[in-house]
Amino acid sequence: EKFKEGLMKTRSSFSERVNDLVARYRKVDEDFFEELEEILIAADVGVSTVMELIDELKTEVKKRNIQDTKEVQAVISEKLVEIYNGGEEQKNTLNIQESGLTIILVVGVNGVGKTTSIGKIANKLNNEGKSVLLAAGDTFRAGAIQQLEVWGERVGVEVIKQSEGSDPAAVMYDAVQAAKSRNVDVLLCDTAGRLQNKVNLMKELEKVKRVIERELPGAPHEVLLVLDATTGQNALTQAKTFSDATNVTGIVLTKLDGTAKGGIVLAIRNELNIPVKFVGLGEKVDDLQEFNAEQYVYGLFA
Ligand code: GDP
């Protein structure tokens, strides 16, 4: 239900346009595919992903000898899920250790919803009975530490911090020690997101990661990249920048409720080969959903 509600914008543009297309065309022909291609591109699915999808659709339609457009609609959903999953079901859950400390590094550009997502994830883990600690690793942006503390209070989770302007690597060192000595299950680490100075930011992230690796072998167990769905193809560019600098293991795609271009999920998966683990569907603490391609695609047309 929440999923359906959060995807209203995408549903009312993308899904309705596909439904309308299917209603207008009785036969599956070249014009039908051309219009479908336009709709998919408008939904931010991404040109190369669209081409791949249309090719596969054409092949499938031929193979099954489909003539009725109504039947094609089912194949479209099927293929969208298949393209997302890349032949195998994607692991959309967090890599939480069976025992001992799990460290999750959260990266992304300012304003994408990083702090909010950390709060939501902390709350979710907390509700699952895990003890959680937050590390205020964005020591650069004014107000970032305080904002994280507000979320910490809201969800009942403590924040390890130093003063603004201090070395983020030192904050991480403290946070890992605190998490170890308190036998915490999950340490969620916020990081800076000033992309104006890309080289410095990436160096800082590398340093932070090195400290974590040194203090807990095998960590970080996840590097989550937060992307804003409303920024469309820009989100893809950001994803490329971050995944070049660090080994991103999953994506949190925020503000899906605020865009009609939900196709960006497919573009990210298909072009970067990084699974979307969570989607943000609003500003409130429980507006975060584990991502599942089947649920997503079928939810769009339901
Ligand atoms: P940060 O700078 O990356 O830490 O971004 P914030 O967490 O401060 O979020 C920036 C803005 O986006 C805030 O107003 C959030 O309430 C809002 N936001 C975050 N996630 C979502 C989401 O999934 N949906 C909507 N509609 N707003 C969101």
Give the tags.
single chain, elongated, 302 residues, binds guanosine-5'-diphosphate, alpha/beta, 12 helices, 8-stranded mixed sheet
Element pattern in H and E: HHHHHEHEHEHEHEHEHEEH
Cross-sheet strand order for the largest sheet: 3-2-4-1-5-6-7-8
Identify the bound ligands.
guanosine-5'-diphosphate
Stretches with pLDDT under 50, minimum 5 residues: none
Strand composition percent: 5-15%
Spatial shape? elongated
Averaged pLDDT = 92
* SS-derived structural category: alpha/beta
Gap between N and C termini: 11 Å
Largest sheet: 8 strands, mixed
Percentage of residues in helical conformation: 40-55%
SS field, number of helical segments: 12
What is the radius of gyration computed over CA atoms, rounded to a whole number of angstroms? 21 Å
Number of strands: 8
| Oligomeric category | single chain
Organism: Fredinandcohnia quinoae
Catalytic activity: GTP + H2O = GDP + phosphate + H(+)
GO biological process, one term: SRP-dependent cotranslational protein targeting to membrane
Family: Belongs to the GTP-binding SRP family. FtsY subfamily.
